[in-house]
Design goal:
With about 100 residues, this protein is mostly helical. It has a domain of about 40 residues: Histone, subunit A (Orthogonal Bundle). Strands 1-2 form a two-stranded antiparallel ribbon. Helix 1 crosses helix 2. The longest helix has 22 residues. It starts with a helix and ends in a 10-residue tail after the last strand.
Length: about 100
C-alpha cells in the first residue's frame, strides 16, 4: 500500500499539524517505510503464539486504598498562586477553534 501526499495531508490535518511541501514528501517516504515493515510482519506465522501485552510479568504495585483525613482547605490552598474562595484559580487553557 503506497502512501500518497493526500494521505499525509489527511493525517497532518487530524493531528493538527502544518507541514511544508518538503515535510509532506519526507513523511510520505517515512510512512511508506513503516507500512512496508508492517506488510513484512503480516507474512510471519503467529499461529500458536499467545497474545501478550507485556514482555515481562507484571505485579500490581499499587497500595491499598485507605480512607484518611484530608487537608484543611486553608492548608491545601496556602501556597496557591491565585485562588477564588475555596478553589484554585487557573488561567483559561481552552481556545476557540479558528
Amino acid at each position: 500500500m503506497a502512501i500518497t501526499i493526500q494521505d499525509v495531508e489527511h493525517i497532518a490535518k487530524l493531528a493538527r499539524l502544518r507541514l511544508t511541501e518538503e515535510e509532506k514528501h519526507r513523511f510520505q517516504k517515512e510512512l511508506g517505510k513503516i507500512i512496508e515493515y508492517f506488510d513484512q510482519l503480516k507474512k510471519l506465522d503467529t499461529d500458536g503464539v499467545p497474545p501478550t501485552t507485556h514482555v515481562v510479568p507484571l505485579e500490581n504495585v499499587l497500595r491499598e486504598d485507605k480512607v484518611t483525613t484530608t487537608l484543611p482547605v486553608e492548608e491545601a490552598l496556602a501556597n496557591a498562586p491565585d485562588r477564588k474562595g475555596n478553589y484554585f484559580r487557573v488561567p483559561k487553557v481552552v481556545e476557540k477553534e479558528s
